[in-house]
Amino acid sequence: MTPGMDLASAPLDTPLTLLGVGASTSRQRLATLGLREGASFRLLTRTIGGGRIVLVGGSRIALSRDLVRLLRAEAA
């Protein structure tokens, strides 16, 4: 598995760098939204259902709880 932390345990409002996506089915869709390996982003909020709202290049993107567990990141 890719080193780093999953987004479920990542701190809010901290610059992060995406290290990898655990599921190849989600990789292409996330890349079109700007979340690709090496991308810088910031977690804005946690949702009630366990998802996260991330800020990538000035755009806010909502991620589901299941997808959050598949994404690995490190503090930038």
Blueprint of the fold:
Layout: E1 5-6, E2 15-21, H1 24-32, E3 40-46, E4 52-56, E5 59-63, H2 65-70, E6 71-75
Antiparallel strand pairs: 1-6, 2-3, 2-6, 3-4, 4-5
Structural write-up:
This protein has 76 residues and is of the alpha+beta class. The chain has one domain: SH3 type barrels. It has two helices and six strands. A six-stranded antiparallel sheet has the order 1-6-2-3-4-5.
Strand content: 35-45%
Helix content: 10-25%
CATH topology: SH3 type barrels
CATH superfamily annotation: Ferrous iron transport protein A (FeoA)
Task: Give the N-terminus to C-terminus distance in angstroms.
Answer: 19 Å
**Which radius of gyration do the C-alpha atoms yield?**
11 Å
SSE arrangement, N to C: EEHEEEHE
Instruction: Give the C-level CATH assignment.
Output: Mainly Beta
Coarse morphology: globular
- Secondary structure tally: strands: 6
- Count of all domains: 1
Put simply, the count of helices is 2
Please summarize what this structure is.
By secondary structure, the protein is α+β, with helices and mostly antiparallel strands.
Descriptive terms for the model:
2 helices, six-stranded antiparallel beta sheet, alpha+beta, 76 residues, 6 strands, 41% strand, SH3 type barrels
